[in-house]
TrEMBL record:
It comes from Segetibacter aerophilus. It catalyses: L-proline + NADP(+) = (S)-1-pyrroline-5-carboxylate + NADPH + 2 H(+); L-proline + NAD(+) = (S)-1-pyrroline-5-carboxylate + NADH + 2 H(+). Residues 4-98 form the Pyrroline-5-carboxylate reductase catalytic N-terminal domain. One of its GO terms (molecular function) is pyrroline-5-carboxylate reductase activity. The gene is proC. Pfam families: F420_oxidored (PF03807), P5CR_dimer (PF14748). The lineage of its organism: Bacteria, Pseudomonadati, Bacteroidota, Chitinophagia, Chitinophagales. NADPH binds at residue 56. The keyword NADP applies. Pathway: Amino-acid biosynthesis; L-proline biosynthesis; L-proline from L-glutamate 5-semialdehyde: step 1/1. It is found in: Cytoplasm. Its EC number is 1.5.1.2. This is Pyrroline-5-carboxylate reductase. InterPro entries: 6-PGluconate_DH-like_C_sf, NAD(P)-bd_dom_sf, P5C_Rdtase_cat_N, P5CR_dimer, Pyrroline-COOH_reductase.
Length: 266
């Protein structure tokens, strides 16, 4: 399988994917093309050797793997514009678009080429994404290749398409939710005496360490919490107050509101 990759839609996620792809040398920048109608903001990628264009058909002709990274309402127009260039015997289409199902894509392109959906998050730019994949008509070789590609940029799992909306909430929106948790820690940290920059460092590194404990120990959060909570100590006093104020409940309600938005209103 040849490995030229085109990214259509050089916005937040599209540029993060381009950065992630070229970061660790998995693919040469010369084998990546990214498009946007106004290519001005793509200059930093161009300076690093990535091909940039405002012509989606040029990108479709360039890439063997075509990643669609536009907003949901832009998908139909983009797919229709490259439909004639899509080649069933060559191209693999990968959509990262929220709430657009594989059947929707087939109904627009009317060609039986392999279609994947990928749900990464913006940490893909620093090779720390969580990416959920699903596909229809992908060969085992193509599935393996795409899993390997996204594995270069974090962790990857293949799931059923019916879980992609849930993956979007937990894995992609989750980056923003984690940021708010960290921001609240910074705000609290300033109130109890730290400068903003020191509070930011302590909050971010502490959250990173907590996540690494779970990933490396394969443990449950409550097991790790038990190791921190001294009886009659300050940790449990803080945790219980947070729960009295609805901490876990508000997060769960936030996740389900996000899920409801995707499944009923996008
Ligand atoms: N931002 C995130 O964390 C994540 C976003 N997604 C999905 O990825 C998609 C892109 O999201 P963002 O990057 O955040 O949006 P964005 O608005 O930053 O990026 C979309 C880009 O597509 C460009 N574009 C629009 N029409 C175009 C066309 N005809 N040809 C070429 N480029 C065109 C826009 O100029 C823009 O730069 C969305 O569907 C979103 O649901 C999925 C996972 C995470
Ligand atoms: O907010 C959104 O709709 C997109 C989907 C996942 C992250 N951003």
């Amino acid at each position: 399988m040849s490995n030229k990759i085109s990214i259509i839609g050089g916005g937040n996620l599209g540029t993060a994917i381009a950065e992630g792809l070229i970061k660790n040398g998995f693919i040469s920048p010369a084998n990546v093309m990214i498009t946007k109608r106004n290519v001005h903001t793509l200059q930093p990628l161009k300076e690093r050797g990535v091909n940039i264009s405002n012509d989606n058909n040029e990108a479709a002709a360039f890439g063997d793997i075509i990643i669609i990274a536009v907003k949901p309402f832009q998908v139909q127009e983009v797919l229709l514009s490259i439909k004639a260039t899509l080649d069933e015997s060559r191209h693999v289409l990968v959509s990262v678009v929220t709430g657009i199902y594989i059947k929707d894509i087939y109904s627009i392109i009317e060609k039986q080429l392999p279609v994947f959906r990928a749900m990464p998050n913006t940490a893909i730019a620093i090779s720390e994404s969580m990416t959920c994949l699903c596909n229809q008509n992908g060969t085992p070789e193509q599935i393996r290749y795409l899993e390997q590609t996204f594995d270069q940029m974090g962790k990857t799992i293949t799931i059923d398409e019916k879980l992609m909306d849930a993956a979007t909430v937990l894995g992609a929106c989750g980056t923003a939710y984690a940021m708010r948790y960290i921001r609240a820690n910074i705000q609290g940290g300033i109130e109890i005496g730290f400068s903003a920059s020191v509070a930011s460092l302590i909050a971010a590194q502490t959250v990173k360490g907590a996540a690494e404990l779970l990933l490396r120990n394969n443990s449950h959060p409550e097991q790790e919490i038990d190791k921190v909570t001294t009886p009659k100590g300050c940790t449990i006093a803080g945790l219980n107050e947070m729960e009295h104020q609805g901490f876990s409940s508000s997060l769960i309600k936030g996740l389900t509101a996000s899920y409801k938005k995707i499944t009923t209103d996008m």
